[in-house]
Amino acid sequence: MVNYEPGQDRNVAALSNLVMCDGFYKMKNFKEKYMRMALIEAKKAALIDEVPIGCVIVKDNKVISRGFNKRETKKDVTSHAEIEAIRKASKKLGDWQLIDCDLYVTIEPCIMCTGAIIQSRIRNVYYGSEDPKGGGLVSSLKISEIKNLNHYPNIEGGILRDECSNIVKEYFANKRKNKTLG
Ligand SMILES: [Zn+2]
User: Between the CA atoms of 132, 135, 138 and 141, what dihedral angle is there, to the nearest 10 degrees?
Assistant: First the structure.
């Protein structure tokens, strides 16, 4: 349906509506584009038998860092995808503050990673699927309910939700299958 102002030429109204729709789809597409890159990172984690979670950080429409979960490989509890990507982004920018940076991660960040996101002043966080058992943005912890933080990132979830959660479900299903077979 085309909305138009009284007295506005219908063709002009139709055209501006089209431009708005185009803008909307471009917005949606760029989020999906970067989430697909995060999914590629998640797949890299699966290849080395890590829980498949991947992350990319974007600044000025460019990916400045990537990371995937390496907790087992590094025997390091802090080596979640987000922390890996945040470390690399800080190194690249020469700054612990990641102002004007957007983080894309396949699964809602945990409480630890949410802390790092707040501390590093990341602007927008886009996640794929919620983590009801430990998510630090909207699930176990809701940062909107925490008072007096000096930074609150914008949050948007559900970007390629099914793909992001299925890759984790498949990983655990395979693990169980291999356990039964072994
Ligand atoms: Zn985490």
Answer: 100
Distance 43 CA to ligand 1 centre (A): 17
**pTM to 2 decimals?**
0.86
Give DSSP secondary structure letters for 22-40.
HHHHHHHHHHHHHHHHHHH
Write out the two tokens for 14: 């139709």
| C-alpha 92: how far from chain center | 19
Q: Which amino acid is at 33?
A: K
Candidates 41, 50, 82, 130; catalytic one: 82
> Annotated catalytic, 82?
yes
pLDDT, tens digit (0-9, with 9 covering 90-100), for 8-56? 666 656 656 655 666 666 767 999 999 999 999 999 999 999 999 999 9
